[in-house]
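Onboarding guide, step 5: your first structure request.
Type a short instruction followed by the sequence, for example:

Predict the 3D structure of this protein.
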Amino acid sequence: MPDDVPPDRSLRLMCDYSAPPLWNNEGGVTDFAEYGLPADLERDLWAWQEHFDANFHWETGWSDESAAQLHDRGGRDLLTRLSDALPGYVVELDLWAVRGPRIQRWVRETSEDDEIWA
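The system replies with structure tokens like these:
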């Protein structure tokens, strides 16, 4: 995470077992309704989490490769949409269940264009 990001402007998009998929930077699960997200984005965030819960097992992993690929694509799409909906925030996408330890992509919306850290 870039050093100049205030903690209250940092979010993590990540699925975990039966938890909301949006987290604050200290690991606590946030109630993303407080961010005023569009209804379709909120619905799709929950659908992404439900897909994870239905298709990923903590001991055996993904039910099949297509489920893992769908999770990956869905997370990347949600990262873009979430970043567009929350200008001024830094959003991290953590695809730990697809890529292993920790894959991060930071997107901060600016007035001119996006900055991306990898």
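Each response can be followed by summary notes, for example: Residues 101-118 have pLDDT under 50 and may be disordered.
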